[in-house]
Amino acid sequence: MKKSATEILIEKNIxxxxxxxxxxxxxxxxxxxxxxxxxxxxxxxxxxxxxLYRALNDLKSVEIIKEFTTTDSITxxxxxxxxxxxxxHLFCTRCGDIIDINLSKKFEKNLDTEVVKIExxxxxxxxxxxxxxLGLCSKCVD
Amino acid sequence: MKKSATEILIEKNIxxxxxxxxxxxxxxxxxxxxxxxxxxxxxxxxxxxxxLYRALNDLKSVEIIKEFTTTDSITxxxxxxxxxxxxxHLFCTRCGDIIDINLSKKFEKNLDTEVVKIExxxxxxxxxxxxxxLGLCSKCVD
DNA sequence: AAAATAAATGAGAATAATTCTCATTTATTT
DNA sequence: AAATAAATGAGAATTATTCTCATTTATTTT
Lengths: 142, 142
Known about the structure:
Chain A has five helices and six strands, in the order H-H-E-H-H-E-E-E-E-H-E. Chain A has helices spanning 5-11, 18-29, 36-43, 49-61, 105-122; strands at residues 34-35, 65-69, 75-79, 88-92, 98-101, 125-136. The model of chain A has no long low-confidence stretch (mean pLDDT 94).
């Protein structure tokens, strides 16, 4: 069911190199988005830092991965969803934890309707959206 | 109706200095979120760069302003909404334009309901949320 | 399968963004 | 108005990211 790093690279038609495979695998291994710092440590000795940055940009530009910035200004990456699906994020503003979440079908439908309104009102062509929920996780709440 | 920079500083109980006033005014002058680069140019000669960064952090920590990062990794600031109100953003992924938007009351209500579900499911205490819509503005669409 | 070509890597230098230091200035308190 | 506390400015220091280029690895051609 789940695609290997190599398969993903073939699909996007970019050449299969060891750093790219390692990086994709490392990101896939993490359930949740991973920071550059963590990636760097995990790949220490196997991928040069310059290559890490370059490869992340390459993978981003063919949309294999997505980059975003957390509320505390940390850059993180995740493997992009394929087929129409997508998900959102829940952030703990104290410990920095990030959790992937899915919204109900019904709510996503509501959201789509709202988006159409906005498109008309602002004469925009909306391609995507992200919803981020910010708060405290169970560990940090008390 | 709208508060002055000085009033805002008094309200948050931090001292009133010329750089802080200038920075808040500059951010208020922009309808939409403003980048550090733009702020820097606009305040050239009036506020030192080190002061700009420091003051932005100060203002952020008392929640006078909010910081976020655009899809193309540019850090921008806006004055925080007061009273319960809040708004969201529409991004043009080609020209980088950012527009403030408000969602319908009805939709925000739906969202709140959805948020409660997520809180329960993940045992999180959710304090805030942001919805970002990404697409092409009328100028960039063709 | 080997040779030729094209693309990607690694190491470190270069640049950009942000924070830090500390003497001086400005704001607040007494 | 004097004393104290806080913030500023200038530039140095640090951190994050990109760039350069000789070498290695992958892909294409024969």
